[in-house]
């Protein structure tokens, strides 16, 4: 199980920790922050990018494939459901849309390339985001 906790500092700056590491999230100045760290959507995309790279590396190691490098780039945007080619007919309003560009370098045959393209979409974070998440929310007050 993964766990993080966050605390608002000043302005929009947030300190985040998992108990071993601490990092910062913030909003850009145009959104009222001081831009001391990535914004929450950039943190989400960084988790997806890291998971994609690690999953491909683990797969190559497991299969004995020589991986020279893997680079993953993700972009998030809100698009209107009417403009979404891959959305359900009953989708309405705006939906989150993630596009990816994963570059894998190594000596692969065509069959391996096809499989690696599939593996690039099968990291645990990608599967979680694609299938949706059930929330159990709680707020407490002093």
How would you sum up this structure, described in words?
30% of the residues lie in helices and 27% in strands. The chain starts with a strand and ends in an 11-residue tail after the last helix. The chain has 2 domains: 1-37; 39-131, GMP Synthetase, Chain A, domain 3, CATH 3.30.300.20. The relative contact order is 0.13. The model has no long low-confidence stretch (mean pLDDT 92). It is of the alpha+beta class and 142 residues long. The strands form 2 sheets. The chain has a 3-stranded antiparallel beta sheet, with no helix packed on it.
Classification by helices and strands? alpha+beta
CATH topology of the largest domain: GMP Synthetase, Chain A, domain 3
Question: What is the CATH architecture annotation of the largest domain?
Answer: 2-Layer Sandwich
Number of strands: 5
The top-level CATH class of the largest domain is Alpha Beta
Distance between the termini: 28 Å
Q: What is the averaged pLDDT score? A: 92
Q: Please, how many domains?
A: 2
Number of helical stretches of at least 4 residues: 3
Percent of residues in β-strands: 25-35%
CATH-defined superfamily of the largest domain: K homology (KH) domain
**Strand order of the biggest β-sheet:** 1-2-3
> What would you report as the Rg, rounded to the nearest angstrom?
18 Å
The largest β sheet comes out as: 3 strands, antiparallel
Shape: globular
Helix content: 25-40%
**Which spans have pLDDT < 50 for at least 5 consecutive residues?**
none
